[in-house]
Design goal:
Distance between the termini: 46 Å
Oligomer: single chain
Order of helices and strands: HHHHEHHHHHEHHH
Helix content: over 70%
Radius of gyration: 21 Å
Length: 305
């Protein structure tokens, strides 16, 4: 048992959990707040990864993060345009943009399926010089995620942020309040995909490589992290909900790491991920059914007594 739960596994899970939590925060904005199933996530994650990798190769690792933010926001604006101006359903708009991004991503990578960053500096090499600790990668990723989470919480409590939240609850009410729901949807999707692009860029610098298929299944992983976090922390203030999403992402990565340590074949990793996602999605419903069953048993016992 001690060989399964080691410090290195915990460290790696926390590092990847922090990086992938940015995608979970993106789905928190689009799925939980705007009530939109945005399937742009997979392609946008690879877009951020490829843009970040190319700019990092040019010797600008910090600028690469901002470039990935801009690229992600641009992808989100295209998805929003299809929804709000062209009348395309949200799921179809995401599929269309995600399909088109494959060509864009491979073009950004110089029509190569992968890019290596082993000889390039990154934000993690800077962190290694500044932080004399083996945990420098986690500290760097944690600071970045904390900054993103704080900025997101502040933004969502502004007038525009509250309008975005209200759009997801009742678009007709927002429209009656003289607020253009198309504008709020566009801003929300731009913010969400900007976070997704940032996550891809950070991961590229973390693992010193970028692959064209890196974003495959990312929306499923992020959705699992989001649901795990929201299930465990419940509703509450915006900072609490954001912290819960980050915690859910770290917990998900830890479960995957444990599965790998239990000698689960690499070919079965997708199946393990699917099971974790299914359990995470079904857990709130099962929890509600269990509470109802306990209440029913309690009423029956009182009647018999």
């Amino acid at each position: 048992m001690s060989s399964i739960f080691t410090v290195s596994i915990l460290q790696s899970a926390l590092e990847l959990g922090c990086i992938y939590s940015l995608v979970a925060l993106a789905l928190f904005v689009s799925y939980s707040l705007l009530n939109i199933a945005d399937l742009t996530t997979d392609g946008c994650f690879t877009l951020g990864c490829s843009v970040g990798a190319v700019v990092t190769l040019a010797g600008h690792p910090v600028l690469a993060l901002f470039a990935a933010l801009g690229a992600g926001a641009l992808a989100g604006s295209v998805t929003a345009f299809l929804q709000t101006k062209m009348g395309v359903e949200s799921i179809l708009a995401g599929i269309i943009v995600n399909t088109g991004l494959y060509t864009v991503n491979i073009a950004v990578m110089g029509f190569s399926s992968n890019v290596s960053l082993f000889r390039s500096e990154s934000i993690f090499t800077y962190a290694k010089e500044l932080i004399p600790s083996e945990w420098y990668k986690l500290i760097a990723a944690g600071v970045l995620v904390a900054a993103a989470g704080i900025l997101l919480a502040l933004f969502l409590n502004t007038r525009l942020g509250l309008s975005i939240r209200a759009t997801g609850d009742n678009a007709d009410m927002v429209r009656a309040s003289s607020i253009n729901p198309g504008f709020t949807v566009t801003v929300g999707l731009c913010v969400a995909n900007a976070l997704t692009g940032l996550s891809g860029a950070v991961l590229a610098q973390y693992q010193k490589s970028c692959d064209i298929n890196l974003g495959t299944g990312m929306v499923t992983i992020a959705l699992a992290s989001l649901i795990i976090g929201e299930t465990l922390t419940g509703s509450g203030s915006m900072p609490r909900r954001i912290a819960g999403v980050v915690f859910g992402s770290c917990l998900y990565r830890f479960l995957v790491a444990v599965a790998l340590r239990l000698n689960v074949p690499a070919e079965c990793l997708k199946l393990v991920s699917a099971v974790i996602v299914a359990v995470a999605i079904a857990f709130p419903y099962l929890k509600k059914k269990a509470a109802f069953a306990r209440q029913k048993m309690s009423v029956r016992s009182r009647q018999e007594g």
